[in-house]
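One example given next:
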Amino acid sequence: MTPLIVPEHSWCARPAAADWSCPPPPSTPAELHRSLPAYAATPLTDVPGLAAEWGVRRVVVKDESARLGLPAFKALGVYYALYRMVQDHLGGAPVAPDIDSLRAAVRRIPDLELVTATDGNHGRALAHVARTLGVPSRIFVPDVVPQGAIDAIRKERADVVVRPENYDETVALAAADARGRPGAVLVQDTAWEDYEIVPQYIVDGYSTMFVEIDEQLGADRAALVVTPVGVGSLAQAVINHYKSRGRPVSVLGVEPDTAACVLTSLRAERPVSVPTGSTVMAGLNCGTPSSLAWPYLRDGLDAVAVVTDAQSLTAARQLADAGIPAGPCGAACVSGVRSVLADPAGRAALGLDAGSVVVLLSTEKSRQAEHLGFRDEGDRERRRGETG
């Protein structure tokens, strides 16, 4: 395996990823999503100030703050996963990729209940989709998740179970719960040994976002796509789309310094679990890479950077000034690029020049930063102490 270039502790790059390719994702997700009554392509917004700062032609932000009536992109994966899971349950019987056919098919499955663990947006999306389809849901949530996020899940009429364990342990509890009750089905967005089919469906569902980006860019082509990284499922979807296109597109992953499982794993050249701490980037507060995502991260991720809460919140305020209501997870993309470009080797590692187009994925609406009220790095450390 090609050694990593590790210029400093905050980021690393893997040059071999530039030549790696993979088969494309399916085209069915976009067809299904476009049948949804609430469907509309989310905005792709230019930020000229960042383009000038980074010395590139364009910086655009894919704003997922109002996807399908929810404040994040996660429903894309949930809808498609349920569509595929229903077909599997019905013995592979064909179900048309539209919401009416999906709703009718769900009614053919007795006692169905959807179960998951979440650090916020995935659980809310599952609860919302379940309510839309008339199916009950049970959502397990670590108690470090902000109360506002928990309340939002409850408003979707889900049975919410708040637990003192960390994210990885809460996932295990949800899986055990689903195994132990007739009709309960786990719909989890991270994979492990013997649980990779549903997470792959979820990843495939995310592909609609990148189909939209290609259409919105028109004749332009992305040189760099920057994605937040938790367990790696969204990053897997990014890599799957762009590394299957036969184009020289770099992918940069960004994760919190409190949960840098991907950076740690890339340096170790194997999946590594790390302890996690409190962070405003709650959706990225994951200590173990998805087993399904890992081969894509290992071979197709051109670089990964870690950022602090303070850096993320500063970037969120700057994006808000540009009219983009980015939460701290999506805003971390700005900080990640800055971290890499601060190093003399960074521009070459990302493949950027004056004509480049950079795409940032703003994955959720700003809510956590306002709820938690972090002001600076010292405040972050004080809050971390308060929450244990």
Observations:
- The radius of gyration is 20 Å.
- The chain is about 40% helix and 15% strand.
- The CA atoms of residues 6 and 12 lie 5 Å apart.
- Confidence is low (pLDDT under 50) at residues 368-388.
